[in-house]
Structures are given as structure tokens and as C-alpha cells.
Design brief:
Number of strands: 0
Distance between the termini: 68 Å
Radius of gyration: 36 Å
Largest sheet: none
Helix content: 55-70%
Shape: elongated
Number of helices: 5
């Protein structure tokens, strides 16, 4: 099993990792009852309702069993492949050495390979069918509790909306404070320069534009090097 396959199995649906279904009934299970993300650990939410938590725990347990069978199949495939590659290299080496090529074949016999794979696949498909039974129970439970759970969600929506409204109000207040500081910074510099826009009334508190660049705010609160004046520029020869 490759690392990528392992990662996918830990986080996503398992359908693409399953071998060819053995019969039409099993294929129907895969396409109708285990469709979508039914076999994914992210299918059911966690810590929302106790009934769903219990179903999620069972879903993850069944998923682990199916994954365990898939990994057993991967291990068989890797073992048989290693045996075949070793046998092929043994035959090639015999040709290089000029030795007889009828060396002993120590690979797992074909009949035993079939038997071993069949045993694991039978366990796998049994787990898949039980997985589907549990998925049906999940859907039945969701249908039984639909009205109750939707009502519960509606009750949670009001405080969530109130929290958003408070947050929005804080954002508006913060923007207004930022913009007031910007205008005061401009007022300080304009009066210090004492030019055409100097000696103006102090800015009154008020609202702020929707977007104020942080760079604009920074420019208002400190002079850049090219705008330094005698009163705020270098004061010593070393600094100059």
C-alpha cells in the first residue's frame, strides 16, 4: 500500500479502494447504501447530539474493520509481488551463471494465493454489508430526529446571530477609532507644517470609510524620511 493510499483511506471514502464487487447485490450496496461520504470519517458530525455521537463511534469502528481487511489485501499483494520478483531474478541469475534454470520455485502456489485472497475478501465484503446496515440506521435515526434537531439548531442560531451582530458593531467601532487617529495624525502634521492646510479645526469624531489602508494610517502617524522637517529630523551631525 502506498503512502498516498494510506492517507486517503484515513481521511476519505473507501469505495475507490475496494476490489471488484463479487456480485450484483454487493454492487448495489456500494452504489445505493454506501454512496457519497458514507464510508468517510467526516460523514457524521461530532459532539452535536448524543444519538449521533453513538452512531459515529460505531461507524468509525466498522470503517476501521473494513480498512483493516483492505490493508490485509495490500499485504498479500505486496508479498506475492515480492515472491514473483525474487523468483524472476533467481531465473535471470541462473542464466547469467550458466546454471540450470529449473531451480526450486519457492513462491506461494497459485491455489494457495487464491485461497488466501478469498478468505480476506470474504471478511472484507461481510464488513461492507454490515457497514451498509449501519448506514441505513444512521439515515433512519436522522429522519426520526429531523424535526427535533432542526428545532435545536434554530434555538442555537439566535445567540450565534447575536454574537455576529456584536462582532460587527465592534468592527465598525474599531474602524471609526482607526480613522479618527488617522485624521488627528493628519491634523498634527498639517499644523506643524503651518502651510495652506494648517491651523484647521480639530477633526470631529465620526464614521470611517469601508476600506482604509493600513499604509495610509501609518503615513498619518509618522513622517517618512522624505517629509522630515527641522523639528523632527536628525538633530545631531552624527545622525545627519
Amino acid at each position: 500500500m502506498s503512502k498516498n493510499t494510506g492517507n486517503r483511506r484515513r481521511s476519505g471514502p473507501l469505495l475507490s479502494d475496494l476490489p471488484t464487487s463479487p456480485d450484483a447485490a454487493t454492487q448495489m450496496v456500494l452504489t445505493e447504501r454506501l454512496k457519497g461520504h458514507t464510508t468517510s470519517p467526516s460523514w457524521l458530525p461530532e459532539r452535536v447530539w448524543p444519538e449521533l455521537d453513538a452512531l459515529r463511534d460505531e461507524q468509525l469502528r466498522l470503517r476501521f474493520q473494513v480498512t483493516d481487511a483492505l490493508e490485509a489485501l495490500d499485504a498479500l499483494t505486496a508479498r506475492f509481488k515480492s515472491e514473483d520478483e525474487g523468483h524472476a531474478e533467481q531465473l535471470r541469475q541462473a542464466h547469467r551463471d550458466g546454471a540450470p534454470t529449473s531451480s526450486e520455485d519457492r513462491r506461494t502456489p497459485a491455489e494457495q494465493r487464491v485461497a488466501e485472497r478469498t478468505a480476506v475478501e470474504e471478511r472484507l465484503w461481510a464488513g461492507v454489508h454490515v457497514f451498509a446496515e449501519h448506514a441505513d440506521r444512521v439515515i433512519e435515526t436522522i429522519r426520526e430526529h429531523e424535526d427535533e434537531w432542526l428545532a435545536d439548531l434554530r434555538s442555537r442560531l439566535v445567540p450565534a446571530q447575536e454574537k455576529r451582530r456584536r462582532t460587527d458593531a465592534l468592527v465598525v467601532e474599531a474602524k471609526a477609532q482607526e480613522f479618527e487617529l488617522y485624521r488627528l495624525g493628519q491634523w498634527v502634521q498639517a499644523n506643524a507644517d503651518d502651510q495652506g492646510f494648517g491651523r484647521q479645526p480639530a477633526p470631529a469624531p465620526g464614521g470611517a470609510p469601508d476600506q482604509v489602508s493600513p499604509e495610509v494610517l501609518k503615513d498619518a502617524l509618522e513622517r517618512r524620511w522624505h517629509r522630515l522637517k527641522p523639528w523632527n529630523g536628525p538633530t545631531t551631525e552624527a545622525a545627519a
